[in-house]
Amino acid sequence: MTKLSVNINKIATLRNARGGELPSVVEAAVKLQEFGAQGITIHPRPDERHITRKDVYDLKPLVSTEFNIEGNPHRPFIDMVLEIKPEQVTLVPDADDAITSNAGWDCEMHLGFLKNVISEFKKAGIRTSIFLDPNPEMVKFAAETGTDRIELYTEAYAKNYSRNKEEAIKPYVQTAKEAEKYGLGVNAGHDLSLENLKYFSDQVPNLLEVSIGHALISEALYMGLENTVQAYLKRLAKW
User: What pTM was estimated for this model as a whole?
Assistant: First the structure.
């Protein structure tokens, strides 16, 4: 079964809009795991506009499933991850002022840089994943970095799902198959939702994990957090 990792950035965004500690990202992480989430994802950015450095350290002892930290590997980010030692670090090439992640790595152009960064993480025993556009030709360069997994950037799939889901899924299936050839695990994330997740999960081979935040937290406003997590887990079930 594909694991569900819940991105709790939106909880932090809501908290920061008012100040104070409500809603609590720590309590949200604990509850999400109780409700069945198999991982917690955070994406701390330099301006701390949602997840803060304090959040990262507060969450570490309370994530009992899988802790996945995403981010652009600037030196402060690298040092923090090496200190926290999460189960997984996902490298994302987003600009500091980006509202949200909007592109995968050009692994050919940044091959040397990624090799060096990934080597540091792997020496510390941290599994690595590279955020990647659905481009089969980029997979061989991703493999050369030494990464353990790729994370497929799924915004294009989500945008085109209602128009033509068969065409929308094709590059993702091709990229996942190519990753399998190179022994890379496949994660996915960005704009996956209750509407489009099941088809994606059913079609994409070797899908080990999905990271979902914005849609899941939004849907939880109507359905409640526990019901929403269970609904996502049902979409990922293979029966």
Answer: 0.95
